[in-house]
Target: Shikimate dehydrogenase (NADP(+))
Amino acid sequence: MTELPRIPLAGVIGSPIAHSRSPALHGYWLKRYGLKGFYIPMDIAQADLAEALRTLPKLGFVGINVTIPHKEAILGMADIITDRAALIGAANTLIFRKDGRIHADNTDGAGFIANIRQNAPQWNPAAGPAAVFGAGGAARAVVAALIEVGVPEIRIANRSRPRADVFRSDFGAKIAVYEWTQAANMLEGAATVVNTTSLGMTGKPDFRVPLDALERGALVTDLVYTPLRTQFLIEAEAAGATIVDGLGMLLHQAAPGFERWFGRRPEVDDATRQAVLSA
Ligand code: NAP
Model:
């Protein structure tokens, strides 16, 4: 009797997980390309993480996405870690290899860059310094990616200063740390401006910074994508900036995992955006 191939399973682990848009996104791509497979949200507590990683491959999982709060801890449980995941200190995409080893990557930075390139093709990262607000986990992926694409200087400010200071030792001489209360000064001459704080998310206070020094034509993006047009982006656009919302980063960071698990590189286009927005 010929053995039927196993239907590939993938998913996202985090806690909480109900808010995640990833199941809608992967589910849409599976349907669009007529592929066999399932993508499942899983609320897994920190204490159960190691056991989950042992069990999931046996159940037919070919890989998973990892989100808050497990992105850092998961690195210590992987067998192969890409250079960029090691530099960032976190992983968001795991591949369960046939040889039993777990491969960990971080695609957030590549997703961040792909989103800007798709929506603002004229963007030139080498045109001037970047100003990065916030120094959390997502900021590490953003800064690593900005360095990789040739941004000459990265200015960073964070409410808790020590978290920003670590960037100087981890990412080197291109990093200039500013006081949170002086963060608006980072905008002077900046060609790229990024909000990586969680401020501006629905239910949280807006992210606000005086924009007097913002260069007309600077590229301004926000990692927050609920709402899609944050107050920060609205004000930056009114001040003459080119703006890019954060949803495309979510879509682009998901594409490499989908390709590895289900065997087809998915398109990130308007139909994909609409599918996620309407889910
Ligand atoms: P995180 O590690 O918890 O970092 C949160 C950041 O926000 C820190 O810099 C924190 O500053 C700052 N912050 C929070 N509340 C603040 C306040 N009241 N005033 C000033 N700063 C405040 O989270 P993360 O993983 O980096 O995620 C950050 C944001 O990016 C979230 O909104 C997340 O949803 C979004 N994100 C989006 C994508 C995407 O695909 N678009 C991908 C990843 C993340 P302190 O260090 O001082 O607390």
